[in-house]
Input
Amino acid sequence: MYSQTCGTSFEQCRIRLSLCLSLILFTPANMKKLFVLLAFAGVASAASAVDLAGNTGKVNVSMCIGCHGIPGYKATFPEVYQVPMLGGQSEKYIENALKAYQKGERKHPSMQGIAGSLSDKDIAELAAYYSQQK
Amino acid sequence: MKKIMTSVVFAASFFVSLSAMAAGNAESGKLLTEKYNCASCHGKDFNSPIDPSYPKLAGQHQDYLQHALIAYRRGNDGMNGRTNAIMAGQAKALTDKDIQDIAAYLHGLPGSLVLEK
Output
């Protein structure tokens, strides 16, 4: 689970954690130092997550296919209609649409939720993936 | 009994008219797309937009096309709208019937959109 969520392997995480603990233990129990340390740890794990995402080379369509990959699938809330076919659609249009959901220029509860969880890089990859389908 | 029959007939005609509405008239839709110059952005065949920021429309699901036009017409009002400078202007002029007809026409065109995982 660790490796999936933050990109740090369990072993790395354990080493980092024990390092943190030893540093805390062997320095004077100073709250300010502790906070600085925690802040650094946070930055380090965030950075490694980005690195991992950059190296996957795989598009994560798991959030898309539950609706857009099922023939005849209909959005049911707040209105009922078949969700759009994405395969072969213009790349920039897909990218803009996802960003419009992020900004609230397009309103749809599910799509706003999903788009909100995507990075610019995710969006670019998804747009490229779907636009290249034939 | 007569009352029941009347209501059954009434209900049946209601559903028939509903489905007729949803079907749309592709012929009239074609004329409307010409009137509103849709092809000037979405491409002559509606499958080759003049810029990759515009969507291909040919063959897209009819009910989705309908929904998209309604959402653009709604703009920022209501919970399921879209704001887009160009499409807001285009969709504002359309009646429900216009939207159904346009969607029927575009859906019926041959296109390269596909549904894959």
Observations:
- Chain A touches chain B at residues 61, 65, 68-69, 71, 74, 78-93, 96, 100, 105-109, 133-134 (CB under 8 Å).
- Chain A is about 65% helix and 5% strand.
